[in-house]
């Protein structure tokens, strides 16, 4: 589904203007019930005032990367939201959801199994570097489990280096195994207002 939104923010002043901005968020879980964790995270996001769900990718199953010990495969997806929250407000909301769904602070920055992992990939056209948040996400271009679902819902998107998201996803898929697990309508239903249906 499509929704009409204002132009993305371009600078610090506009970050707090209260206008609707599009943002992409990746989700991942490799602790059962993996799918329920993804569904709960989206449900909690869309219940926040100033956040609307615009598009949902399929869920993909991927092998954990850069881990020291064997772990269960991840379920990953990407969603597109429209938001009136500032980037830092959205980040704070995402971190709160992670904690409520059982992610411990000690797993931040580690490769431990996770009930839920939420990453803000982009926020409009904003470029931002702070201690808490870098936009666009600095490693999104290296991850097939991010780019394949991102290509699915935004095939014309350009990565920070100017490469088309689908072209880069195709390159990464040759060396990173990503398998579609569920189609969008099989794991998350949207109503006509961009909210999660019952």
How would you describe the overall organization of this protein?
This protein is α+β, with helices and mostly antiparallel strands and 198 residues long. The chain has one domain (14-179): 7,8-Dihydro-6-hydroxymethylpterin-pyrophosphokinase HPPK (Alpha-Beta Plaits, 2-Layer Sandwich), CATH 3.30.70. It has helices at residues 34-46, 87-100, 144-153, 165-173, 184-187, and strands spanning 21-29, 51-56, 59-62, 74-83, 117-123, 128-129, 134-135, 178-182. The strands form 2 sheets. Strands 1, 2, 3, 4, 5 and 8 form a 6-stranded antiparallel beta sheet that branches. Strand 6 (128-129) and strand 7 (134-135) form a beta hairpin. Helix 3 (144-153) crosses helix 4 (165-173). Mean pLDDT is 85; it is low at 1-16.
In short:
The chain has helices spanning 34-46, 87-100, 144-153, 165-173, 184-187; strands spanning 21-29, 51-56, 59-62, 74-83, 117-123, 128-129, 134-135, 178-182. It has 198 residues and is an alpha+beta fold.
Distance between the termini: 18 Å
Estimate the strand proportion: 15-25%
Protein structure class: alpha+beta
CATH topology: Alpha-Beta Plaits
Q: How does the major sheet shape up? A: 6 strands, antiparallel
CATH class: Alpha Beta
- Estimate nothing, just give the exact number of structural domains: 1
Strands, count = 8
Oligomeric state as shown: single chain
- Specify the overall morphology: globular
Number of helices: 5
CATH superfamily: 7,8-Dihydro-6-hydroxymethylpterin-pyrophosphokinase HPPK
- The helix/strand order is EHEEEHEEEHHEH
Helix proportion of residues, in percent? Answer: 25-40%
- CATH architecture title: 2-Layer Sandwich
């Amino acid at each position: 589904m499509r929704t009409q939104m204002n132009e993305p923010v371009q600078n610090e002043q506009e970050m707090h203007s209260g206008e609707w901005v599009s943002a992409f968020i990746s989700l991942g879980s490799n602790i059962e019930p993996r799918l329920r964790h993804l569904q709960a995270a989206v449900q909690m996001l869309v219940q926040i005032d100033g956040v609307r769900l615009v598009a949902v990718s399929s869920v993909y199953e991927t092998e954990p990367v850069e881990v020291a010990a064997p772990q269960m495969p991840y379920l990953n997806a990407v969603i597109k939201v429209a938001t009136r929250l500032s980037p830092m407000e959205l980040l704070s909301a995402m971190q709160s959801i992670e904690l409520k769904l059982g992610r411990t602070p000690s797993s931040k920055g580690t490769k431990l199994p996770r009930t839920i992992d939420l990453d803000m990939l982009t926020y409009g056209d904003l470029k931002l570097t702070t201690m808490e948040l870098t936009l666009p996400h600095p490693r999104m271009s290296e991850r097939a489990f991010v780019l394949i679902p991102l290509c699915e819902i935004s095939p014309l998107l350009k990565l920070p280096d100017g490469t088309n998201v689908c072209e880069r996803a195709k390159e990464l898929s040759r060396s990173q195994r990503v398998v579609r697990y569920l189609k969008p309508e099989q794991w998350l239903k949207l109503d006509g207002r961009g909210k999660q249906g019952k």
